[in-house]
Amino acid sequence: IPASFNSVKISPPRRSTPLPPSEVPSASKAVWEKFTPQKRLDRQMYHYGHFSQDFLWGVSSSAYQIEGGYNQDGKGPSVWDVVSNNPGSGIPEDVNGNDACDSYNRLDEDLYMLQALKVKSYRFSLSWSRIFPNGRRASLNQKGIDYYNRLIDGLLARQITPMVTIYHWDLPQALQDIGGWQNVEMIDIFNDYCDFCFATFGDRVKFWMTMNDPQGLAWLGYGTGRIPPKIREPGTAPYQVAHNLIKAHATAYHTYDDKYRASQGGMVSIALNAEWVEPKDINVPRDLVAADRAMQFNVGWFAHPIFKNGDYPEALKAQVLVKSELQGLKQSRLPSFTDEEKNLIKGTADMFCANHYTSRLILDQPTTPIGFTRAVSFGMRRLLNWIKAEYGDPDIYITENSVATPREWAYDEIDRVFLHKTYIDEALKAYELDGVKVKGYATYLMDSFQFLYGYLFGYGLHHVDFNNPNRPRTPKFSAHFYYNIIKDNGFPLPEDEKMIYGEFKKDFIWSSATASYQVKNFCSRLSIWDKFTHTPGKISEHDTGDVACNSYNRMEDDIAALKKVKVSHYRFSISWPRILPDGTTKYINQAGLNYYKKLVDSLIAANINPQVTLYHWDLPQALQDVGGWENETIIQRFRDYADVLFQNLGPKVKLWITFNEPDTLPYIVGHNIIRSHAEAWHVYNDKYRASQGGLVSITVNSDWAEPRNPYKQEDYEAARNVVEFYLGWWVHPIFNGDYSPLVKKSVLELPEFTPEEIKRINGTYDYFGLNHYCSVLAFPVDFGTTQHFEADSDRTWLETGSVWLRMTPFGLRRLLKFIKDEYRNPPIIITENGVSENGPVDLNDVHRKYYYEQYINQVLKAYLLDNVNIIGYTAWSLLDNLEWAVGYTERFGLFYVNRSDPDLPRTPKASVSFYSSIISCNGFPDPTTGPHECWNPNPTPTPTPTPKPEGKKIHFLESNLSVSDSRSDKKFSKIKIQIETYPTLICLTLIFQNKPNNRSEKLF
């Protein structure tokens, strides 16, 4: 044995204790009851942490899938060799595993890959017919044994633990010729094969799996006939085969136990496929029972006899018996174990080895489970908890986990990276948060022959070119990513995620926002949005802006809401058609103008500064009728409109925004908007600045972009292009006078500014107005003659009520730093930032509190650490208002507006108190310095009922210690701790008893 083997640590065998049979439904239904009701935020919250130091990070393979050399050096034919070499095998493209990855001849290359990955374990299987060509000891093939000796010794020399599967579906054809696993003789034949493997390799192999996924073999090989030996007898054969497989495993386990364990000290188990099954509706008892039954069929079929009582689950026995009786059979199609066999089987596993890929949804209907169409990572955590609860808290090794990607995605397969980020993190949650004994994880080493799918898909960390006879192996993006997970032993908390404590500048602008069309009531003259929302098919007939939040008539309610939030500013927009009904100054609607004057005065009286947007998308329909923003005359119209507002409101308004998010096509529209903005800025600069002393700018929206593959320079360039294009389209002309070279290069139909216009536009800003919500992953797309860029989302980013919005706090700081570096560190006001929810109303909007905490903390980092000249922050939005084309289905508000009540009351959500506390603190005080009066994160009281005390339990702990109160002369002789537990509440009461007068004092 190589000396290096001494440094390979593996957990000592954990002898299984037989457990009682499962109930129907099993007690493990508590896993659904605990996890299924989780809120989306709780379910998706990423967990940072580390596995144990002896965690076995590994990769896996199987003999037929990678070895090749199917008739080389005396190897006998397996059932897969025979089937795959016959025409009409059913395997796509009529391929086979004759050569596969050619690992039999390329062992050194495999060992090099393993060493480069720095894995701690390698799970591989032995080819039965390479060791015993006809399946029996008498046909022993020394060259096959030599190959596995070289593999095992090569692993140990690299301090990699061999995890050996003795049988992975490739039964010698000679044994199938005598009936295969339908023949009870296979139990002794398999035991003899295992005995030889233990004796030959067991001095170096300490981790054994007798067989892989016996359930898949029984059902696919003997039920549906999809894999060799392709027998289609679904009614009886799978149960008969499973019966023999279970007894064969148990017999081999006892052989190791009796003959080798004392001298070799290894562990033996069986690798079971384990999908997670989720009930369609946790509140429907029949669905929960159906999910439990599905788990017993899926996992319990084999695990229950081995890990519990030596017999099949009661749910499985009952179901098969009922169906057998309905078919007129005298006895169940499910065979029975004798008492002697039960005693042989139970407890025959030293650890639980699980192959896990996906989860399924099930309801109590006579149908098969509904398969999810994508990775369902939360199923990993729930499965691991279920195994812990159901099988007596065993050590668990995840022996297979991966995802299929098309072979065209040779190297840049982001799906596998997402799988590792999410599935491994769910395993980490199970380990660190739930106390599950997760001991190891393995994924596919390289692309290989995928049984039913041939070479259509890749599952591996390394791409194998099967068209090249040399079978070159190339690491994929996922290999680099997995390497780093191993190096970090999990997921350390990134610097981006760490909180910083401190304050913003004293005059920092704290604001919340609305827009006129989104909160107003119906205007006497139409805007383009009035027409759009009243056009059939454009938006729900109930989701127009006719009333919205009725802010036009409920000004006092809105101001009261603002005061509750404690903002210093309020950003609102002016309704152009309310001031100028036809969009021109031919007629000024004095009533509309008076409304805004009153609003400004009321805000100032409440010590709230108005922050006014001139145009927030609601163009007068009369102007759209003559071409809207495509008609060059609109530049003068907008200039005149701005002049009216500056003249009438300017003496009291010190912050102006000309346009909100002008992102729009065609490009002539953007061209005219930029020119219109410049003209409005010059009107203020020339006529009003000296007397009014305000600031005027434009506010643009931009995502931040990260490279989708951080190992590709092309993705870095795509990420920069995304930001430079969408931000620079508007900002570059205003800050530098003309479109950026990137925009000019990318847009062939882009209009040109004249030299006079460049001079007129350049420098028309007093600050940088930024709307920001989320970030994207960017990557290039080649269209032949040109290259463009597209964006994606990381699946680990928290979802929200909008499909386009995922929580990415880190992006805001990076975007602010980009603006500082690119545009000479201008003063920046974040003019919109917020998050949505949908579905049932929940006033305890914990996800919004989390969003504001994380995003605002990133702003503080930009201010304190990056010296960004950030001067204000605006939360979108004050109220749940009309969210444009999606109506009222997505709610961004700090206040819930009950639209079923004609009074449209504004009810504060929990985020109101949270945001107001940040404002009161002007940032984030350091908690280590003690409590701060400004910080009051307690959620605002909501209509959620207080938990009732039914079923409370009271416990007492007493101590007869002599205790004195340092703040007084009181002495106490007894401390009593009263613990009251409720379904969702725990109350602790400390009772101090004074012995002389037996008086009690309570401290809650």
From TrEMBL:
GO BP annotations, alphabetical order: carbohydrate metabolic process
Gene3D superfamilies associated with the record: Glycosidases
One Gene Ontology MF term: hydrolase activity, hydrolyzing O-glycosyl compounds
Active-site residues, as the UniProt record annotates them: 832 (nucleophile)
Documented EC number(s): 3.2.1.21
Bias kind Pro residues: ranges: 938-948
Membrane-spanning intervals of the chain: none
Subunit structure: Homodimer.
UniProt-recorded name of the protein: beta-glucosidase
Protein source organism: Poecilia mexicana
